């Protein structure tokens, strides 16, 4: 077998591991899932898992890194073609409600992970905080383009609304939660424009 083929199959095995872990971690929680189950469902050996990840924590960090990259890409794509900062915020928030309305929605992967890893010094908790800081910086930067008042309070308000919508979206009617969230976002945008 050539090196290229070996690398291709290794990459495929890593991808299967990460895809499997992502599905199970998101649906059932991180601590409740052992590596034996992930290995079995990904159809790889334990040795293959440890060839790609130093352990379960490394796999959890890869899961959160992938979720972070996916959400950043969604936010960028949502903003493409939008001219005003307000419309960019609306577009980002519509991607959030699309997630809330999606089948199998179980809340925010990052809030869920933070609940399982409450120690602020743990690498998983730090990954959650880094993602949240990116989101806060993104929306605050857009809100700063509207009005002269400091945008920090409005950005934090929007993040809190998002957190509430993500938590409520899997506990009650996702349509109603999405509608309420977008109304709250409009309130923030109107206050910034006033």
Automatic annotation (TrEMBL):
Q: Which domain of life is it from?
A: Bacteria
Which keywords does this Swiss-Prot/TrEMBL entry list?
A: DNA-binding, Transcription, Transcription regulation
Residue ranges of every copy of the HTH tetR-type domain listed in the record? 11-71
Entry-linked SUPFAM superfamilies: Homeodomain-like, Tetracyclin repressor-like, C-terminal domain
Do you know which Pfam families this protein is assigned to?
A: TetR_C_13, TetR_N
One GO MF annotation is: DNA binding
Specify the DNA-binding region ranges: 34-53
Which PANTHER family does this one have? HTH-TYPE TRANSCRIPTIONAL REGULATOR LMRA, TRANSCRIPTIONAL REGULATORY PROTEIN
Protein name in UniProt: TetR/AcrR family transcriptional regulator
Q: Give the organism the record lists.
A: Streptomyces mexicanus
